[in-house]
Each structure stands twice: as C-alpha cells, then as structure tokens.
Amino acid sequence: MQSKPTAGWAIVAMVLLLPGLAWAHAMVMELFVEATEVRVEAYYDDETPAELAKVSVFNESDRIIAEGRCDERGVFRFPKPSPGLYRVQADAAGHRATKTLTLEDPNAIGNPGTAAPAKKVPLLQIPATLIGLVVIAGMTVLIWLVTRNRSESSPPSHS
Asked: Staple partner for 76: which of 5, 39, 55, 150, CB 3.0–4.6 Å?
C-alpha cells in the first residue's frame, strides 16, 4: 500500500528551506569618523539593525584594539585610535561585513580620516525573505493540490 503525501511533507520541505531563507540577506556596515570616536552602524540589506552584532577593530598587525557589541539600533562606538590603517569587522548570525578605516595624522592638512564609501541598497529591491515566503507558499499549495487530486482519484477503500 502506498502512502499519500500529507501536510507532513510540506512541513519537511519548509524546515529544509528555512535555513536558506535565514541566510538570504547580507550585512552592511558604515563607519563615521568623529572628533574623538568612530561610530559603526551595522545593518542588513533590508535595513534591519544588526542588533548585538559583534564588532572587532584590528590594527595593521592584526591585533584587536577595540571590541564590543552593537546596541538595538545596530550602533557601536569606539575611541578614535591613532593615525593608521584599521580593519573593522562586524559579525552576527553567520553574516559578516568588513571595512577598511584609514586615519591620517591630525596635524596633516586634509581629511582626518576616511572610510570606504558605504554600499547603498536600492529602495525597490525585493527583500529575499518575501521571495522565500512566496516559494514556501507555492510549494505548500502544490503539495496540497497533489494530495487532493490523489485522494479524489483513488477509489474508496473497504475494510
């Protein structure tokens, strides 16, 4: 006797697809050099703050000079270090964003520090989560239709 597809298969399909959906967006990070500190803003490409993202700041010798977690707005601040080249890295939920921070000598003429320009996300971009939900809904309807058609076409069983 063959077993019929049931709603259980839809649940199995969703469980297998959900991890892919969780990774379906990227982390973005912006650096702002201020008078006495550097402000890090970490967020996902759907503009959700990367709350509690771990931020590490590495010097040219690859040693951590500052470390901490973003607040609920995805913001982390650290004291402005001495002139040099730094790597700022934010990690959260398997996502990582990295930027290079260059701080110049404050006595030099010009900009006291620069960060690589931030990548802007188009406003009309469809969030990957929405696409994933549509795929799951479509699979659920497909499984329901297949199950319904099989149950209607199979003869009633007599015990």
From this structure: 55
- Residue 5 makes CB contacts below 8 A (sequence gap 6+) with 143, 146, 147, 150
Read off φ and ψ for residue 6, nearest 5 degrees.
-125, -175
Task: Answer for the pair 99, 33: CB distance below 8 angstroms, yes or no.
Answer: no
Range of the structural domain that residue 143 is part of? 8-21+130-153
Domain count, the chain: 2
Q: In this structure, what token pair is assigned to residue 102?
A: 């260059």
pTM of the predicted structure, to 2 decimals: 0.56
pLDDT in tens, 55-101: 999 999 999 999 999 999 999 999 999 999 999 999 998 899 999 99
Domain contains 13: yes
Phi and psi at 56, nearest 5°, equal -125, 135
Asked if the structure places residue 2 within a domain, the reply is: no
Q: Please give the angle made by the CA atoms of 131, 15 and 20, to the nearest 5 degrees.
A: 45
Report d(CA 132, CA 11) in Å as an integer.
Answer: 15
Does 1 reside within a domain? no
